[in-house]
Protein 1
Amino acid sequence: MIKLTHISKSFGRHQVLKQIDLTVEKGEVVVILGPSGSGKTTLLRCVNYLEKPSDGEIAIGDYRLSCKHASKKDIHQLRQKSAMVFQQYNLFKHKTALENVMEGLVVVKKLPKEEAKTRSIALLEKVGLGSKLDAYPSQLSGGQQQRVGIARALALEPEVILFDEPTSALDPELVGEVLAVIRKIAKEGITMIVVTHEMGFARDVANHVVFMDGGVIVEEGPPAELFNHPKEERTKQFLKRIT
Ligand code: ADP
């Protein structure tokens, strides 16, 4: 479904990703863990070209792109296949919740306005915001804003949703409502890659956990295996520190 091959990324002379290989099957929830600075966010951003990889290949479904030779059209096509949920929500501040979700459907998917509206309302209801359609981001809690962000990603019907630390900007009491929504859509079989520090979520929801450190994948496997029987010393140390 998604195959990253030898993905590398440097910022100046600093190589942040070193030949990463990762395969994600359709319907899988992959959680990426690792210490701060290990390259998790950069890897996620490379999947939809918010960062341009220095080298490697990205395949989503039967679409394949070689990073060294990608044209603007290739990149545009690749971007259509994923949607990102950001740490800081990244909503349009001067648009309502409904308009934020509709935007991608009207501008990117070119749907007629009425159809975009009907679909957006259904998605906002799905994330528990049916009563907040006309609220502006400033009138919503962080948890509600992030749920709008999730509805917006779902609206695009991407092949994969990329979550970049979706709960790390939230007050602790708001984390649960956002994780509950992610859990719910994971059960529907939507393919996801999630960068998070929420270990409980990783244990319960992930099919596959990837531990990164220093720009490489140190270890990966099913959550029960990685959490209960980590093989690598770096994984053991990391898990000891955070659990
Ligand atoms: P993580 O998500 O694991 O905390 P990141 O992917 O955010 O790690 O960052 C990995 C490394 O890349 C860090 O050393 C960070 O400072 C560096 N980095 C990330 N983005 C940029 C950028 N736009 N310019 C320069 N360095 C960056």
Protein 2
Amino acid sequence: MTELLTEQCDGVLQLTINRPDALNALNTNVIGLLVDTVREAADDPACRAVVLTGAGEKAFCAGADLKELAEMGADRAHEVMRAGQAAFRAIERTPIPVIAAVNGLALGGGFELILASTIPVLSTRASLGLPESGLGLIPGYGGTQRLPRAVGERIAAHLMLTGSRLDADRAYDLGLTPVPPVAPDNLHEAAMDIARTIARQGPVAVRSILTALEIGRDASLDAALTAETGMAALAIAGDESAEGISAFLERRPPRFVTE
Ligand code: CO8
């Protein structure tokens, strides 16, 4: 059975990490499938958003597959770590939004996957933590860098050094998700709702906003603003804004065209 379930409907690609017996731990196969599928989605104009979740009721993802790791030598583990980090970066910088529907435990690489996603939505059952230091590991899928950027260095240091968990309310209070936690039964619909809303926006505008965010992660404010000016000029000169503004003036919904 495939370890990554895929289903596309109404411009939204739904991905489910399908290893419930291993609490959806990330082995090399799943990481490869994830990054390839997200890249293919980004190349498909009909795909406007991705919703990513974990199979079963207990876990979104319990992190790196420790059984697989234990069987590797140090050189192979290093290779796998580098490939995993590159995969998370590819997911973060993909020009279509990835909505993480966090249905339960998100530990280690599972929490790091949330940090690499565009918009996480948490069920009230979600529990987030970085237990790596207790295993003699470190959060090597971007956690040491993305978590402090998201919540500040002290909170990140506390979480990484102690392995403490965050419940969904605390994660919301810290700004790790923009929406209040939802009841587990409503999680899928809440994530799909955000994805479908994004799918109704101007497709080029959505990609440009994500590209601007990506440029801003690693650039001075002035350099990033210059890039923003270029993208805004392209947007205002394009067919998409002509349609969007006409629709506003004519009091009708816009009809955006995907290539
Ligand atoms: N990897 C592989 N299998 C796992 C993992 C995992 N991360 N987590 C759980 N499982 C498996 C268990 O082995 C078990 O399988 P089996 O029944 O065949 O033994 C099954 O899932 C259910 O797990 P438990 O019986 O342990 O369920 P509990 O409810 O008792 O406990 C916990 C749930 C608390 C989630 C517990 O399973 C746990 O602590 N898991 C490990 C979580 C963890 O430490 N994650 C971080 C991993 S390290 C990481 O992600 C670093 C990434 C970057 C570095 C990469 C370097 C290459």
Protein 3
Amino acid sequence: MTAQIDHALEEIRRFRPSPEFAAQAVADESLYRRAAEDRLGFWAEQARELIQWETPFTEVLDWTNPPFARWFGDGRLNVAANCLDRHVDAGYGDRVAIHWEGEPGDSRSLTYAQLTDEVKRAANVLAGLGIAQGDRVAIYLPMIPEAVVAMLAVARLGAIHSVVFGGFSADSLASRIDDAEAKLVITADGGYRKGKVFPLKPVVDDALDRATGGSVQNVLVVQRGGNEVGWTEGRDQWWHDTVATASAEHTAEAFDAENPLFILYTSGTTGKPKGILHTSGGYLTQAAFTHKNVFDLHPETDVYWCTADVGWITGHSYVVYGPLANGATQVLYEGTPDSPHPGRWWEIVEKYRVSILYTAPTAIRSFMKLGRQIPHEFNLRSLRVLGSVGEPINPEAWIWYRHVIGGGSIPVVDTWWQTETGAIMISALPGVTDLKPGSAQVPVPGISVDILDDDGKPVGGEDGGLLVITEPWPSMLRGIWGDPERFRETYWEKFGDKYFAGDGARRDEDGDIWLLGRVDDVMNVSGHRLSTAEIESSLVAHPWTAEAAVVGAADETTGQAVVAFVILKASQADRVTDVAEASEELRRHVATQIGAIARPRQVFIVNELPKTRSGKIMRRLLRDLAEGRQVGDTTTLADTSVMTAITEQVR
Ligand code: ATP
Ligand code: MG
């Protein structure tokens, strides 16, 4: 088998930064020059400029024991103090850190001074419960300010948080608690979602019955949903009884740069989630650097909003650590995009005059499905930078995002990275890079990537291959919790000292990088290796289509055949009456746009696609369906009933 992936879809649109934007941009070409001339020197400068060190480091990178890297190894810092106290000390205590919007419409704004106080109180409570450096704390909370407070309080003590997405089941929570041997769980009674309260504390109780490790000594409960909860005396404590009355005096102690900061499990798109370990100094440096430069952050004037849940890596790096290290003002929203009405997000943008918005292609495509009239009811003119993360963004979705949400002229950055990379790795820099819809474009300054074939040789021309990161980077994962062997095997075995990301990619003639989808999802049709991302983008470019997922299914004549699952736009769903004809039209469309080889054998029109809880398409389940197999493990699926519905539509 060859790793080469044929590339077929042409995208020729280009957008140059406007001179006005470029003139005020935070980033400039000199970052690339400096990083190219002295990569480690560049990162050392960023670490000194963006982070406050209690003990300055003298050593930048120790890579003598690959794949275990040490960055800024002899430096010491407190991560939470970097996100809080230092801004207050510098005179920015009155700046709003968080504009929080609850789903039912309640709201709260916290300044840096208030957030710092809250974290100090919480740190005192945690210390009182015996939490100290190195202890693990599981956090299972809705998107409320206490989620941020809890993470920072744990970090302040040098302990390790493991945030578990509030939508996960008791089983998933139990296995994560056991894996990390958490001593404390921080949760809420419940949170709001789609107009209803969903229970959290009862799930924790259930999880603790299932957990076999018996590591948990206490449960700290925030009151949010007002739902009834059971209580275990001696173990359970209310946040408002303890944190509110605790002292707001707390001196942050400095810890080693390599002190573990958190464990976070991957989204589980391709299989069983991995407990990814991140540490302090390098992680914070790259999170802050990318947040500042990729989003063109002007902390005095910008209002930033990243829509990711804190249960995902995007919520860690771009809701908590990057923005707060940079002293940004941000919006935090508890609920779903369509509660109580489908314009909720745009109402929030208007209300807080959000200027930087960072979200996922799945959200953008679901807004496309509903139509532009919904965002058009709101004033979105405050927006000046748009970001995307999580999956390849189809060029059509990129254009829609830029035009309908961004008003047609503001930069859109497509950011490629992973839980493992800790921070953005590939992205345009607004004001610097000419933008290309659909391409993640270039490694950020200080990052080195390559595209290799199966034998580890760089692929030539515009051929697709395997994306690797060729040099260690500050926010790289330091391991898989408790499983160094799996760490080596998963990422390092294939290419030795190069990190294997598991994604396919190609470079175009300008050297810009295009993500082609997961390597495991690449299809082999009559000896041609085709990318899921390209065929999906072609389908989404058809005026009828809102979303598409493509898989390769075993085929007697071609080895594999392309099978597509398509969701139509709401405005088209009524017009398309003949499903067979619509499928035929979409098959023809792909053949014309890409070539006969990519023509899907079947196009199924469906109402939903199987997605993980972070919104990514789970193609392996569709492959099971397309090959007539029993559908595999659905435990990381957001809605397990979706596969049953799709199966019925397809049969
Ligand atoms: P698991 O590793 O458990 O299967 P996951 O890979 O979905 O889960 P994450 O770390 O949340 O978990 O996602 C990282 C992956 O998301 C990347 O490897 C890539 O496939 C995809 N991705 C993220 N951003 C982009 C992007 N801008 N363009 C293309 N793909 C992206
Ligand atoms: Mg992954």
